[in-house]
Amino acid sequence: MPFTTATVLAVAALVAIAILARTALTAWNGWLDLKRAEAVRSADAGNHVLGLIDLSDIKERLRKLEAIAAGVDL
What we know:
Layout: H1 5-70
């Protein structure tokens, strides 16, 4: 069974499409991994900022309680 030019071109086109699809899928997975890493980083940063806010709120409450205990009128 001899291969015609059309058959060779069709097979080459299918191979090229398969290679492009595989490359696109790999790029997509890499992009998703990047976005997941960014989400984790921003969540960690958000928790750190909230921790600092909570800490400053606790310190302010402690100052008020100490002032009340000392008899200072706020």
